Amino acid sequence: MFDSNDEMCSINSHGGSMSRTDQFNARTYDQITDYPWQREGPQGTYEAKRVDEGLFVRVDMPGIDKKKVKINVEDDSLIIKGEGVKESEHECSGRTYVGSIDLCPNFFKLDEAKAEMRNGVLRLLIPKIKDGQQSKTISEISVD
């Protein structure tokens, strides 16, 4: 059984000189926010919502190839990074995205998380732990 205080998650985003934290309850609340993680270039969006299987996260990262997306795991946090390249001499730099998701301890099976990047959109499904299950310790989630 889970304590309701253990069901709070937070998404931390950093863009240029601004930082932002959004908290949501993993059981009852969906989080949809504009302009969260992008540090340079035109702004994008993300969505985090509870689904029957666990937590679904979508991050728009236009201009980023899946080979340039990394999802690292530190304790109960996911650190998502995407780095693009400058494609024109008129651009200041390529797009860079960085953000983290602080997950509820002992609520999700990070070792069974699935991530895919297609057409500049990262989709991540993190299953919830069922009674009696445990999650194995991992350091990275591969992106297909």
UniProtKB/TrEMBL annotation:
Protein name, entry field: SHSP domain-containing protein
Similarity section: Belongs to the small heat shock protein (HSP20) family.
Coiled-coil stretches: none
Pfam assignment, any one: HSP20
Chain ranges of the SHSP domain: 37-144
Region of interest (Disordered), residue spans: 1-23
Organism annotation: Fagus sylvatica
Skewed-composition ranges (Polar residues): 10-23
